[in-house]
Design brief:
five-stranded parallel β-sheet; Rossmann fold; about 200 residues; about 45% helix
């Protein structure tokens, strides 16, 4: 069975995260295709600042990194904040920098052959910026981003301060984004099989 690790970069410690609801929607479609999904809410872990794989005592990142390295599929999920990804997603990028350093030293990437996907909630121009930025980063660290392996949703239902229920969001995603999510899953699985 294939496994996907979903790195959820919401900044909400409490209350409903629209990005998490969208990740749950995607995970349901992945599980329907036989993919085991593990969602990691980054904000719930003590991930120390830095650019190395292990920043010392109390750092939760080494265990998260092991899960990423062990999974054939990695999904980066973030809301848009001021046209870019969240601070939690930036922390992931910074902590994966050591893999890039190793590549520059001539070592093989620990992520070579792994297939990535991107989930974004928020502004369309911000989503384009995030997808471009993450695609460039994936290329630098050895992650493969297939075509159509992104799920971005811009809706007033997700706006800051809106009180859209989880059930209403899922109903909206199912109606308007099922085809996109299934295509994303199919593309990811197609590339996992060839990696």
């Amino acid at each position: 069975m294939n496994k996907a690790v979903i790195l959820l970069a919401t900044v909400k410690k409490e209350g409903q995260s629209n990005t998490q609801v969208l990740c749950d929607f995607l995970a349901e479609r992945m599980m329907a295709k036989g993919v085991e999904c593990e969602l990691i809410r980054l904000v719930d872990h003590k991930i120390l600042p830095g650019t190395y794989s292990d920043m010392g005592r109390g750092d939760a990142w080494p265990k998260i990194l092991k899960k990423i390295v062990d999974a054939p599929i990695v999904i980066f999920a973030t809301p848009v904040w001021w046209g870019g990804h969240s601070s939690e997603m930036q922390r992931v990028i910074e902590r994966l920098d050591e893999i890039h350093d190793e590549i520059l030293e001539g070592k093989p990437s620990k992520l070579k052959g792994k297939v990535a996907g991107i989930v974004v909630t928020g502004d369309s121009d911000g989503a384009e910026h995030i997808c471009g930025n993450l695609a460039n980063f994936f290329n630098a660290i050895g992650l493969l981003l297939p075509p159509m392996a992104t799920l971005t949703v811009l809706s007033q239902k997700q706006a800051k301060g809106e009180k859209t229920s989880r059930a209403d969001l899922l109903k909206f995603y199912k109606k308007d984004y099922s085809k996109t999510a299934v295509e994303m899953v199919n593309q990811i699985l197609r590339y996992v099989e060839t990696a």
